[in-house]
Amino acid sequence: MMLTMLDVVLGLAILFAALSVFCSSVVEMLAARSGLRGRFLRDSLFHLLGEETLYRRLLQHPAVSHTVRHRSRSAPSYLATERFVAAMLDLIPARAAAMGISGFAERPMPENMDPVVAEFARSAAFIGECGIAVGDPLSRLAIRNGKSLDDLRKALGDWFDSQMDRAGGWYKRNVQRLLFVVGLIVAVGLNVDTLQVARGLAHDPALRMLASSQAQRVASEREIELNALLDAGRERGLPVGYTCLAEPDRGVEDSFRLCLKQFHQTSWLERALKLLGFLLTALSVSFGAPFWFDLLLKISNLRSSGTPVGEKKNA
User: Fold this and answer.
1) Is residue 271 within 8 Å of residue 190, measured between CB atoms?
2) N or C: less crowded end of the chain, CB within 10 Å?
3) Rounded distance, CA 120 to CA 89, Å?
4) What does each of the 315 residues of the chain score in pLDDT, given as a tens digit?
5) 74 phi, psi to nearest 5 deg
């Protein structure tokens, strides 16, 4: 019984891993074409800097400008930490000078502070008082790490990385939502119903044998093709795809009418369970391929250990 349950989970994990790999490639293609990563970086930088002028000058700075597509005038999809640091060390004093820092009262600085760092801290404090969000945190950062310019560069790089890591959660959540939507479309299009597949695996030893035989290889190689998996599964009776579309000689209109007829013959409970199965498939896909590959490796190792859960090995 325990081995049967493990094989059912293995079969589902292999299927979800293949679907996740396929859907992730679709999401990456959509993200690249729509500039999703670039928009994320643009919004993150704009929120971080707190002023459009400073953001524009960052994109125009020589350390950053070559990464911007000038035709679309969009933000780069990636900004290296050292390039951001180099740009900000120039931009903060320049922006403060343009805003009239000459009349700004001097503030006491630590005695052993590097003069260049002190000027940076003073400039950052000034633009902070002028309402630019990035000014105050950069001023405090410079005062805490003011012994040398190298110390400031390192601290500024660490600060930028931490801010981007925090903002990266927004991008990951959006990608996960997009992965769920693509997974749902693929689940409906290929009729990959988690509940139906689980029942098929539970009642068909041949399907479970197919799953267990491929699990270790898939987990170690971390590669799997959806089409090859579905073709091999259908040969063994894997309940995916639409029977109304299986006949190649049947025309498109006849196949569509047959699918509608089969749909109308189902009860509301069957339709609800079908929808639930599709949603479970999409939710599983949204976890991502690495999650399923890791789970595959753990379960296949547990299964190959030869010790059912709850039993002890003989001494």
Assistant:
1) no
2) C
3) 7
4) 677 888 888 889 989 999 999 999 999 888 878 777 777 888 888 888 888 889 889 988 888 887 765 444 456 667 889 999 999 999 999 998 888 877 666 667 777 888 888 889 989 988 988 888 888 999 999 988 878 899 999 999 999 998 888 777 777 888 899 999 999 999 999 999 999 999 988 888 888 888 877 777 787 778 788 787 877 777 778 888 887 776 666 777 777 788 888 888 889 999 999 999 999 999 999 999 899 988 888 888 877 765 444 444 443
5) -100, 165
